[in-house]
Amino acid sequence: MVPKEESSAGPPALPGSVVALLYVLAALLPMFAALATGIAPVGAVSEFGTALGLTAGALLYSY
To answer: What is the pTM of this model?
Structure first.
């Protein structure tokens, strides 16, 4: 009998659609925080920068 080869790919990963949904939720997190606290966002560019930073952080931990 031939032994079964083990995959060296690592642990199973999340499906792409789930990862994409998590990225969108991470990007929307600052807006949800602003709604929950009642503090108005400083500006669209500031919120975009925060969303970009959160998304970049999520990308760093996804690999």
So the answer is: 0.47
- Nearest CA among 34, 23, 33, 31 for reference residue 58: 23
So what's the pLDDT on residue 9?
Answer: 62
Q: Give Cα 24 distance to the centre of its chain.
A: 7
30 touches 41 (CB < 8 A): yes
Distance CA 52, CA 63 (A): 18
Q: Cα torsion for 30, 33, 18, 16, to the nearest 10°?
A: 0
- What is the pLDDT, as a whole number, of residue 42? 75
How many Cβ atoms sit within 10 Å of the Cβ of residue 5?
A: 6
